[in-house]
Amino acid sequence: MKNKLITLFLVFVQLIYLLSCQQNKIKQPVKTMRDEKFAGKLGVIHIIPLGKVRKQLIEDVIDGLQSFYHQEIILENPVLLTEDLLAPSKTRYNANAILNKFNSTKNILIITEKDIVTFKDIKQAEKFYNAPVKGITKEWGIFGLGLRPGNVCVISAFAKRLGKNATTKVLRERLQKVAIHEIGHNKGLDHCTKNAKCLMHAADGKISQVDHEKMFFCDNCRKIIGI
After folding, report:
1. Between 3.40.390.10, 3.40.470.10, 1.10.10.10, 2.60.40.10, what CATH number should domain 33-225 receive?
2. Is residue 37 pLDDT above 70, yes or no?
């Protein structure tokens, strides 16, 4: 009788252990998938934190991308901020250098809390976009940048730019909008001129435009990207 009780106790302990492991597995946001009709169309998205990035910000980006694109999201290990990524001012980071360094055949979204800037001059911008560009300064602070088309983009949650006058909820929405926008560029979408509330509309560095946009692509952009 005693041996049977011991056996039952050990089985009970093993059962509790297995259930605990399963619960821990479910709670981890590292790799998840939503079974929607558009799932798999755009491919797996790998998120790489650049430097120290708050866990909540990363989870907000994952939630936003999953809800919008319905893709598998894989959170990769953080990578260090290095001097080769600094802009000429040495106080901010060059988004173009980040894209070049992490360019890959995988779909990659880089997230950082550091301030990022784009082109040193108009010629570099025109070479990048392969089109005439106006209004670019030597160091232009931005919310994000993505290759169009391509497989890598970078977004910044820099407090004095994306986080300006933002509550936790507002910052979450802004971050998700910028992430969705840059992935849209990766998939070939240009800045939208059809609807000012479309997430692909150009922000032109204005946080008010980001706030004005709704969490959707207009019919024209949806048709182009195929969702």
Report:
1. 3.40.390.10
2. no
